[in-house]
Specification:
Elements lengths: L1 H17 L7 H20 L4 H16 L4 H30 L4 E5 L6 E5 L4 E5 L6 E5 L1
Bound molecules: zinc ion.
């Protein structure tokens, strides 16, 4: 019974603490992860200046979590997510480019920028973009 009351009290306190605050998002989690990694590397290689990065990341992450400006923090996170998404897409293309390097060439559509995979060693061919239907001639 006493335990229940205590947990109830803690839960209420936590709820009050986070009420109206932004809370945790992907950007904060990444900041915390990078900060922890910095502290780990700093200890491992005895690099005291790296602790500054650890504290900076930690303070910034907690400042974001306790911020009351929901719109601004949300915008930051959206920006971060879109950058992360673009980075992942670029990495995927580079990986498949490397994997298929002997069989395919990857060309960028001159009109819309979409990556197109074309068979290698076919000479001069007409390529039609699957996204915007633009045709162009290239030697592959
Ligand atoms: Zn296109």
């Amino acid at each position: 019974m006493r335990w229940q009351m205590w947990t109830q009290r803690v839960m209420t306190a936590l709820y009050r603490l986070f009420q109206g605050r932004y809370g945790v998002d992907q950007l904060s989690i990444l900041l915390l992860a990078v900060a922890l990694l910095c502290s780990f590397i700093a200890q491992l290689f005895r690099l005291p200046w790296l602790f500054l990065l650890y504290y900076a990341g930690l303070i910034y992450a907690f400042w974001r979590m306790f911020s009351r400006n929901y719109a601004a923090r949300s915008r930051e996170n959206q920006k971060f997510l879109s950058l992360a998404h673009k980075g992942k897409a670029r990495f995927r293309i580079l990986r498949s480019r490397f994997r298929d390097r002997k069989v395919y060439r990857y060309l960028k559509c001159p009109s819309c920028g979409q990556y197109l995979r074309v068979p290698k060693g076919k000479g001069k061919i007409e390529i039609t973009c699957s996204t915007c239907r633009t045709s162009f001639i290239r030697k592959v």
